Amino acid sequence: MQIFKVGGAVRDRLLGKPVTDIDWVVVGATTEEMLAQGYRPVGADFPVFLHPKSGEEYALARTERKSGRGYGGFTFHASPEVTLEEDLIRRDLTINAMAEDDQQNLTDPYHGQRDLEARILRHVSPAFAEDPLRVLRVARFAARYAGLGFTVAPETLELMRQLSESGELEALTVERSWKEISRALLEDRPQVFIEVLRDCGALKVLMPEVDALFGVPQPEAHHPEIDTGLHTLSVLEQSALHKQPLTVRWACLLHDLGKGLTPEEEWPRHIAHEHTGLKLIKAVNERFKAPKDCQELALLVGKYHTHGHRALELKASTLLELLQSFDVYRRPQRFEEFIAACEMDARGRKGLEQRSYPQADYLRGAAKVAREVAVQPLLEKGFKGPELGEALKRERLKALKAYKENA
Ligand code: ATP
Ligand code: MG
User: Fold this and answer.
1) What count of other Cβ atoms lies within 10 Å of the Cβ of residue 53?
2) 358: helix, strand or coil
3) Crossing angle between the packed helical segments 292-309 and 278-287, to the nearest 10 degrees
4) Which ligand has the nearest atom to the CA of 11?
5) By alpha-carbon position, which residue is closest to atom 28 of ligand 1?
């Protein structure tokens, strides 16, 4: 049997990038031989094994053919006769379809190295169209490597467009989609992920609520970029530049969905978009079964981001309501993430990327003041149950009034 490094490890070594996980392909072996050597099988579906010591993935060389809709509809064929070239041709991109032996001799039948040098993301063969997940994968790689100058080949984008129009994207499982989306949002340029999906028509299928923001104007005074879609991309860009976690990036993507519902006659104003957007945010959250913390933050940011921007003008009572809604007493981190998302929203505007955001410290200070109101003295005064809650609120309000006056 022969063993080769494949996929990301080869690509990233040639790019001079750190290699984190290594995928291996094994040519000329049977399952029985792998088991006899101590490899542990992974699941029943694919001929994939884990190395007994390193735990890295070793897959038997295989060919694949589509036999139905979605990913379940794949039949594969693994046998000692399947060649390395046959295994590589089923892969998504040419830069992902190179293999290397232990002497670093490259096997590159589909010219991945050429495309790597030319900074092109190009599909390997027409079989690309057999797995719609590849649309998301290519957009994710575009987000990751845009900084190096990579772009999607026009013919690959065309295939992605056909896939998006064919209805195949709808056959993707939620788990596979979310894995790609969440990884893409955590890349250096997550906005490129959304742009590429939009360019090939996949955004309209996957997140029509986000797609609808393009072409919707906002008031130029607050939004020199005018277009709500472009604003959303900039907010996402800022969230990556500021190394925000996934929760914040997800909230950034969805914060303005309500603006897509504003009747044209009201443009460029978007009165109450925070509220109209909530059902759309909920729909996108649920469509992708986003993790609970992502869902929660997206809804809170959607509902309250304007409050964040107006923090310094808010009445003490409104400030208190805001803090209560976030349960800043038990969930201080979530409030920090809200503040971060608001700040990204404020900076994600053309020419205003470097602006200061005094609202952030003001909100932090308010949370601290409210949190510092002690319960003990109220207990000592005999308050309990709902009355205790009310008394606590009164004390917090008093503290916030003082905070506001001294700010
Ligand atoms: P990463 O750095 O994100 O791990 P990777 O290229 O190693 O990138 P993996 O998901 O680990 O990506 O997959 C390993 C290899 O398997 C890819 O390089 C590609 O050749 C192939 N591959 C994975 N998923 C698909 C797919 N859906 N369609 C075609 N080929 C795929
Ligand atoms: Mg990998």
Assistant:
1) 7
2) helix
3) 160
4) 1
5) 92
